[in-house]
Amino acid sequence: MQGGRGEIGRGAMANGSDESSATPVWPPIHRLTHDGRSGELFVIFLVNLALSILTLGIYRFWGRTRIRRYVWSQTSLLGEPLEYTGRGIELFLGFLFAIALIYGPIIGLFFQRGGEIPDLGLDPLPEAVAVLGEFFLILLAATPILVLFYYVALFAAYRYRISRTSWLGIRGGMEGSAWSYGVLGLFYGFMNAITLGWTKPWADSVVFKYRLSRIWFGNEIFESQLDATGLYSRFTLAWIGTAVATVASIAAFGFLLESNPDLFRNPTPATSWRLNTIATAIYLFPLIVYQLLICAYKAALVRNIAKRLTFGPVSFRADVTFKDVFRLRIPNILLMVFSLGFAYPYVVMRTTRFITQHVQFHGDIRTAAIGQSEIEAPRYGEGLMEFFGIGMI
Amino acid sequence: MPAWGAAADGTYTDGRTARRHRVRATVDTGGLRIESGDGAVAEVWPFSDLRLVDEVYAGRPFRLKRKASDERLTVAESEFLDRLRPHAGHLRRKDLRRANVKVRAAGWIAATVAVLAGFWFLLPLAAGPIASLVPLSWEEGLGRTVQRQALALMAPRSRVCTDKAGRQAIERLVQRLSAAKPSRYRFGVTVVDNKMVNAFAAPGGYIVVFRGLIDNSAGADGLAGVMAHEMGHVIERHGMEILVKALGLSFVMSALIGDTSGFAGIGTDMAQSLATSKFTRDAEREADRVAVEMLNRTGISGRGLQAFFQTMARKEGSGDSTVSRYFASHPATGGRARFVKDHTTAAGAAMSDAEWQAVRRMCDR
Q1: What are the tens digits of pLDDT across the range A147-158?
Q2: In which region does residue A132 sit, left (phi positive, over 0), alpha (psi from -120 to 50) or beta (all else)?
Q3: Model ipTM over 0.85
Q4: What is the pTM for the complete model shown?
Q5: Which domain holds residue B45?
Q6: CA distance B114 to chain A (A)
């Protein structure tokens, strides 16, 4: 038999990256490639939609698995596609556990009280002020728990996905405890709250570093030296811009209140519609300004993450600028909003292409030296994340 | 048609390291033979152990694995899959090379629309049978929640009228009516001090009557008629049906949006949907029928209910805003008054004059 020398996959073994190197280039630069097509992903999306409705939503876990399998398998490094090995049933069971964790106490009360929906204290009270006060107290008490759960869910979701990602038959893995990560997230969240956000760049870098430096591929670990270098200038811009926009919004509202007292005192359907529109615009304005300005911060964060990340002899670069992040995020948001979610496959494609276009691997990926992973993989999927409704795929 | 000897070049990894081996894969009698030129790889995978790692699309390489193993084989030439399929028919399932994206998209769009349409038509049909499966204790628990929430929504600042004589009179009336048509429900009536002409029934037998309705009910017989009508809604489980429909719809919506977090607020949502949505015309007709049946068996005249319907139809026509609420959910038509008139057989009184005066004054302070 001939161990043929022909090209395998798509330009597979070029660039001296592998054991059969031909022309050494230093440092070799590798990029991910993506061969997915929106049409194919759209069909998967439609199948998922129809079956999810038919099964009252239960199929969605299998559907999400199919979408991931597609996106992973169409993404290649050195001409070798990634592989998603997760299964729908794992996501479904993870979801059931999360339900038990969150709704267990409520459902228990429901049965105990013979079907009466437990009064969680959100019952409208006669006095509006009392309602607001009570609501605020509940929110204040619930926030730490929600933040903790959010970070636990985030870590568990990453760990699950990484443990179900393999390349060249070698699995990824993630060590560490989701609950420790949750406590870390809670602490930095608290810091951000009391400093009006000014610890965010520092907190982001610590939290990302914690997660990134626990990732394994096979028997080799990623290392992250992430810090907040260069993040504060972009963050300051976003913070001041948002603050100015907020003050301007409030001033505009105050001015409106002064000049048109009738708008509030004698509302008619026409004026209350106008009032609603104006109030929404005034409320949205600072948010839009923030979303625009934070793109520069996010770009710097991504650049830092890549620059400070190493995997053995391999280092990383991500040459993303404000403009790149802006062109990714803003159309994604608009597409999702105006297509009522039907642009989802296209948004996934855009995002995947963004990643494959910008992430560079510098150095020799010595595949022959990487052994199989021995990190224990979680048995069930990222159930808790379901309740926070974030994460694209 | 067997294809012994067919071969293709590929890449093999053994699952122990990420090292790639260039191999030649051959369809052999014992299975798929995988060999590298340097002799480092010499494997035979039985055909029945072959699995496609992911879906195969036209023009792209395909990947095979050996069942329950980390070994992988990637082959760029997808025609080789056609040589393998006669020996391993199960590989067909993930083979999408000949699938036409446009045809499949159109098919699944049609399927989605059909499923949605199915829900749209089947949900109302299924709601009744499903509602009748709910145990009484659950229905009562839900009813209490719904009543509380609906009151908070419709009359947040209104006091409950607790005058003893008035309450006793109403209780006696409810007992007479419910004895006329035995059901599993224990009815309770709450009167609130609010000028709206309104009444509603939460599941499980929790009936709420607004003072405005007592003031405009054309006498005790009219009040008895309205109460019998609301009891009819409870007995026929119209409220539960609405809740089941709302629950089903929220399931469908969450499947569409892919969001589960909405389940948290389902109790409140159900109360709101019951408080704000209308019963169907059929449900109203059914409740009217039950009401007349109850009145006839109790010996209470239906004239009061008939007069009430007529007064309300007139007031609604003149745009009186205090009645609009009730008839947003209970459309008044001349037909309803006529139905009551045509089917009434009794001519007795709902309560004594003293009792009626007590009811009328029960919200006075």
Answers
A1: 888 898 889 999
A2: alpha
A3: no
A4: 0.75
A5: 7-92
A6: 9
